[in-house]
Design brief:
The protein is mostly beta strands and 205 residues long. The chain has one domain. It is built from two helices and 13 strands; from the N terminus they run E-E-E-E-H-E-E-E-E-H-E-E-E-E-E. The chain starts with 14 loop residues before the first strand and ends with a strand.
């Protein structure tokens, strides 16, 4: 099951990734320590600070209101999103027609992996971390990765839309809001809004 892309482009300096391990330390009478990991993998969190024009605020409100569903254990679906991994952003190295099965992108040192998700975002929408921008449904497409090569990724199925060289492509993870979304007036006249979102992100190997 896929979830909508969280529709906000973060501020370039407003991104924080947190990895959290849990280890139990046992100290013997001799002073020697034994360390036992209590989690197989670290928990992963992402925090985004963002700014929006007032005309994009209703888009965020509608996305939050419309992203509802059933609860199937754990976090309810209305909290869940497809969260782009913005710190691993790359760019399409060639035009991509609709119904493509292979995406041209440099993959080394980026969090692409078989079975994982990726998101293609139109460059005019993402504008390389432009402030005051929300993403509309036509600005993005979620794809599932089949295999990863050095200069491309092969996807499950094919793309629905055509994309242009220079459009953004990012790894993505399912994430759920770790706390309520914070959105405050940016100015006295409410010309804009400043907000922050925190997600716990699913771990995939």
């Amino acid at each position: 099951m896929s979830y909508p892309v969280f529709p906000v482009v973060p501020d370039p300096d407003g991104i924080l990734e947190v990895l959290e391990w849990l280890t139990d330390v046992h100290e013997g009478w001799s002073g020697e320590e034994q360390r036992v990991k209590l989690r197989d993998q670290a928990r992963r969190y992402a925090e985004f600070a963002f700014s929006l024009h007032r005309y994009d605020k209703p888009l965020l409100d509608a996305a939050l209101f419309g992203n509802v569903g059933h609860e199937d254990g754990g976090s309810p679906d209305w909290l869940k999103w497809t969260v782009p991994v913005w710190w691993d952003m790359g760019f399409l190295s060639a035009d991509l027609p609709a119904e493509s099965t292979e995406i041209p992108i440099s993959t080394p040192y980026r969090d692409f992996h078989g079975g994982g998700l990726a998101v293609v975002i139109r460059r005019r929408a993402g504008r390389e971390f432009s402030r005051y921008r929300a993403l509309r449904n036509e600005d993005w497409e979620i794809i599932t990765i089949y295999t990863v090569n050095e200069g491309s990724i092969v996807i499950v199925g094919d793309t629905e839309s055509a994309w242009e060289e220079g459009d953004l492509i990012l790894p993505a993870r399912v994430g759920w809001l770790d706390r309520p979304l914070e959105v405050d007036d940016l100015t006295d006249t409410a010309d804009g809004y400043r907000g922050a979102a925190a997600f716990e992100m699913a771990l995939e190997v």
